[in-house]
Amino acid sequence: MMEPGLYHLLFISAALFFIGVFGFFTRRNLVTMLMSVELVLNSVNLNFIAFNKYLWPNKLDGLFFSIFVIAIAAAEAAVAIAIIINLYRSHHSIDVENTEELKF
Question: pTM for this one?
C-alpha cells in the first residue's frame, strides 16, 4: 500500500483549513463557528506532523507543537462553551446576530 506523500497531507490540510474558514465566516450559530475554529486548528496540527515527518524525521518538534496546539484548543473550547451556555441562558439563543447587546 502506498504511503501518502507530503503533498497529499498538505492538500488535506489546506482543504480542512479552507472548510474551517468558510464555516466560520458563513455560519451564524456559535457552536458551528466553534467547530470551524477546531477544524482550522486541526489543519495546523496536520501541517506540523507532516513537515516534521518529511523534513526532520529524527526530531519530535512537530509532535510537541501539535500537543501544545491540542492543549490550547481544549482550553479554548472549554471557555467558548462556557460563554455559549451563558449566552443561551440570558438570550435563549446562540445566534450571533442576537449578541449585539453584549457590546455594551
Answer: 0.81
